[in-house]
Design brief:
Layout: H1 2-7, E1 15-30, E2 36-51, H2 56-71, H3 88-111, E3 117-133, E4 145-147, E5 154-167
Parallel strand pairs: 3-4
Antiparallel strand pairs: 1-2, 3-5
Amino acid sequence: MDSYLIKEGLDKSGWQEGSEAVTAHMVTIYLPQGGTKTEQQGYDASQSIVVSSKDLTKIEAANKNFLALQAEGHPVTASSPLYLVSNLEDIKMSLIAAATENARKRAKEFVKQDKVKVGLMRSASQGAFYILAAGGNSETDDYGGVYDKTTIKKLAKVVVTIVYNIEQ
């Protein structure tokens, strides 16, 4: 596996190796008179490796080329890549700032007809935070939000509730 990952250009410093495990390899034997029995035939060894990289092109290529490794008869399995947002806190802060500015504009529009002014902010709270696949929607009741890890391109949304004083 090491040689495969190195061939794919994935730096070993980004690997985390899990513990090794050895289990008995059990095979079902069909009996001539009917029925079955289970018999041990050797052992299976396994170890997990988590590969982290900011080079998404290499991760995508390695994931696609993994099928060829299996086709060559190597008894390996892989999970689909998880694509995480590396600057999540910066994105949250940016969205909260934009939502706060937008909330004041909306509040001013609400009171325009009554000839009153939007006063000081009384309270503010952040609700659900969503990271969706590009083109996805947040039509969910999950208070904690959603975090899509299956796609590279993402859309971020935040729910903000702001209460303002109204002045004459």
